[in-house]
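pasting for ref
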Amino acid sequence: MKKLAAILIMVLAITSAAMAQNNGRTKFATDMYQAKHEMIIEELGLTQTQQKQFMPLYEQMEREIYQVNRNARALAAEVEKKKNPSDRDYEVAASALSNTRVQEGDIEAKYFEKFSRILSKKQLYQLKIAEMKFTREMISKKRNSKKR
């Protein structure tokens, strides 16, 4: 009985730790997306009307891109778990990983057309600049945190 209680406590502790770690990741991702969205709104000088029209579309695009990457990573993880992956397993995973950029580009092109109905030509340009700026800032922050 004591062993069962000890095992139950360990399982609960591990589950709680895993959930806390996942919640930390979720909070980090949520905070990161929020910061990115705020930067985009500011850099593009979006009006309230533009924000209401643009941001839901932008978030949908991000979700689609995230899903493409998630699916590719899942295939790669499956290959890593196998004891003796076949050449076909490697091929499928490598193809999925390689095609993520193509799929991302297709998704962005689809949304670019939708964005062009909401944003000015200048804002469309500023969007790409703001995304690159945000990425550079995140990389810089990551590098600086490693130096400490």
